[in-house]
Amino acid sequence: MLDEPRVVIIVLNWNGKNDTIECLRSLQQLSYQNFEILVVDNGSTDGSVACFRQEFPDVSVAENNTNLGFAEGNNVGIRWAIRRGPDYVLLLNNDTIVDKDFLTELTAVAETDPSIGFAGPKVYHCDFKGRKDVISFAGATIGVATGKAYRFGQNTIDRGQYDRVRETDYVEGSCLLARVDCLNRVGLLNTTYRLYWEDIELCFRGRKAGYKSVYVPSATIWHKVGIRASVRRVQGYYYGGRNRMLFVKEYATSSQLLIFLCFLLAFDLWKVILVSIFKDKSMPQAVAYLKGTIDGFFDLGLGDEPRESTT
Question: CATH number of 7-223: 3.40.190.10, 2.102.10.10, 2.40.160.20, 3.90.550.60?
Fold first, then answer.
């Protein structure tokens, strides 16, 4: 409809054409009308681009020559989108399936208040031991002094206990609706992060500029959480440790940073390392987290990425 705000949906793909096809098919069922879709391909080698262009001729495709990571890969799409003059940009993981009304619900809430910079849906696990009504994300709070995120309702059955629109510390990057006016003011995803914590950092940057992040429970999607989590586990532990440190250094007060360092050195760092070694049986995972934490503290980590391992 012409009175609906214009939205560009950005789906980032890297060698995940089957997931992306399923996501795009769900987007074809949207009740919302005033949108267009851009798939940003991050240097895939599985024939993704040709497949998308053949099966989805109405979907635009941007090709990166190499894998630029989550942050810069999406930024390529955001820059393309902003040139189209939309009101909103929606970042959507390729391993999601959306409800047909989710975009209608998200934009309806975002339009009620121009200070809403970011809005996100209720995210369900796509398959949680055979169930599709188990929550993955229903808003969250961040303890800057601990560097810990608490996600409301995570891994619990949805019984309507998180059905109220409310402000949240951040919107999960798997599905993040961003007001273009906000992005023009605060900037795009921080490419220093590459992947992990970049959604949190963006929302906090928006908060400093006076923008809210809002959780919209009437908008729902399903995310294949954990299904591919082990594929890049070592890399994930490296960036998780590094970017957590970068975030706390950026947004913590001096006293919060001191508390965080004490908490990290006395307890949290060793917990992650010991769990990695004795439970996950992965020394590379433990080393990656320790190296990431050190690199984050000293503003390093711009060299070679840690090698992946299946051990």
Answer: 3.90.550.60
Question: Which among 225, 261, 246 is positioned nearest to 295, based on CA atoms?
Answer: 246
* 147-178 residue pLDDT tens: 999 999 999 999 999 999 999 999 999 999 99
Domain ranges (residues) in the chain: 7-223, 233-297
Neighbours of 49 (CB within 10 A): 17
For CA atoms 309, 173, 166, 100, the dihedral sign is negative
- pTM of the full structure: 0.93
Residue 232 and residue 13: Cα distance in Å, rounded? Answer: 15
- Spell 146-157 as b/e; 16+ CB within 10 A means b: bbebebbbbeee
Name the residue among 21, 23, 174, 18 with its Cα closest to residue 93: 174
The list of the chain residues with pLDDT below 50 reads 227, 230-231, 303-311
Using an 8 Å Cβ cutoff, are 163 and 217 in contact?
Answer: yes
Only one residue has tokens 């959780």, namely 215
Q: pLDDT per residue over 259-269, tens digit each?
A: 999 999 999 99
Pairing of strands 175-179, 88-93: antiparallel
Sole residue written with tokens 């941007």: 62
